[in-house]
Amino acid sequence: MAGSSEGAEAAADRAAARVLPDEALGAPPGQKSVLVKVLSAALSGGLIVLLFAVIIPAVGSLSGVWDAISSMKWETVLLLLVAALVIRVLLAQAYAVLIPGLSLFRSLIAREASSAVSNIVPGPSGTATQYVILRSWRVSTESFASATISVGVVTDVLVFSAPGFFFVIWALLGMPDKGDNDNAWAIGLAAVAVSVIAVGVVAGVASSERLAAATGRVAQRCVNPFRRLAHKSALTDWPERFVELRASTLQQLKDREWAFIGCIFGGYFLNGFLLVWCLYACGIERSELPLSLGLMLYSVGRLSTVINITPGGVGVAEVAYTAVYVAVLGESSHDAVLAGVLVYRALTYALPMLTGAVSYVIWRVMRHRELHAEAVPA
Questions:
Q1: Among 52, 135, 148, 204, whose CB has the most other CB atoms within 10 angstroms?
Q2: Per residue in 97-106, pLDDT tens?
Q3: Considering the entire predicted model, what is its pTM?
């Protein structure tokens, strides 16, 4: 029985290796990978310096942004902090729902530590960290791979489909805004187009293996030219991998879809509320930015975070969110908008690095005690 169990686990590891990066499965990073990480981390630091030294003074004023941030009440700051922590718990609970036997506490430890790493080091560093921590608690590679795929797929579907949903809500409420602003309409209609395409593709893939394979072939053809430019071999197995991805995701969501979707949707919507609350706290009036319009603009800006060019989207997300809101509210609101976005990013980018560092220390202490307890009977 032990031999068959080990054989099954080895087979699961080989299957997971097809969907997880090598580094996430314990392989040491190569020289090129290390170089890319160092350069990207330097780029992230440079972008932060650029944001405060060049971009903010060019489009606003540091003093205006600081005045908006310093005007926040401490009660509001505390409320925003609690909301940000609830988001972290919801995202960790998604893994606890999907992985049998994984407690929320352990999932939170792994999730926070991995978020801290991924916000600093590019590539699969966050996935690798989360895998190592969960593997130390005997979470199988198959369970981790399936959960990671499901979380990624459902999150991306939500990110692409939410803009159209929020636009419909805004339209049903009478399209409230601060005045006759064509930019809000243009952004909303573009959001609807993106959402309709995304929902249509996902619905088709979920209902048909043939369409899943066709989607894989199209994606493969789009990616291969860039791989050739990078002197990498062309991909040939994406149609089969898309079919497997479809099957594994549907299987993973079976019997647990409502609890899991509740965690993902709850985290997404609370993120939107958090950003809008940050804008209100920094001086944007509710009459200028109704909640429905604020959530629609958040969902549009969130599209910029689907593919993170920099770790945690640092620099890119700040500019994208600010541009979307200023396009609708006008240049006069720029300092308050940028202040609100920076507060939001402090809660969703900087805070996980702090909680992640604490989580990593807790994991090391827990593992030391667990290993000691296992060694005593032996």
A1: 148
A2: 989 889 999 9
A3: 0.80
Give dist(CA 115, CA 356) in Å, integer: 7
Give the Cα separation of 47 and 161 in Å (integer).
29
Q: What is the pLDDT of residues 45-88, one digit of tens each?
A: 666 666 666 666 665 677 788 888 888 999 999 999 999 999 99
State pLDDT tens for residues 316-354.
788 889 889 988 888 888 889 999 999 999 999 889 989
